[in-house]
Amino acid sequence: MDSSEREAALAAMVLRVVDTNRYMTLGTVEADGLPRLTPVYYTHDAYRTFYWVSAPDARHSGNIAGQPAIRMVIFDSTTLPGKSDAAYLGATAHEVPASRLADECAVAFRSTPGGARPFAPEELTGELRLYRADVTEYGVHIRGSHPDFGTGIDKRAGVAAEAVARAAQRAHRPGA
Fold first, then answer.
1. Going by fewer Cβ within 10 Å, which terminus of the chain is more open, N or C?
2. SS3 per-residue string spanning 71-106
3. Nearest 5°: CA angle at 170, between 165 and 172?
4. What's the pTM value of the predicted model, to 2 decimals?
5. Does residue 113 lie within any of the structural domains?
């Protein structure tokens, strides 16, 4: 497997993990520098922008207001040990301002699989708000037993954003 095939396979892994799961662990930074980890239901737009709904007074929401650089991990916790994949995402996050809610809700709730319901903009100006994270970096968990990339030891591999974008275009183009 050459380097472009490897990159394409790793990007396809990102897409598969994102598409087959509904919750991610959101990592923000507390005022004391410690991590705050929070599970949230997510939707996404083209694997570049991730959305979730949270209370503005939740600690992770406050952390984002103070430090917008976040980390996210998506994985299937129901798989057996040695059988799972994970996607790691670095991003910059913010609360979607009220002036952008109509446009952003149209994108964020275009598809809400897994029994979730879409929110209307007027529902997201009080006790709940829409948050958006723009991905700045991608990575995947390579399990030690992976048939193509495993080395016997679990590790993390970076994935180029351009490779993820190409994989997304291929995955959603009819006949591709």
1. C
2. EEEEECCCCCCCCCCEEEEEEEEEECCHHHHHHHHH
3. 95
4. 0.93
5. yes
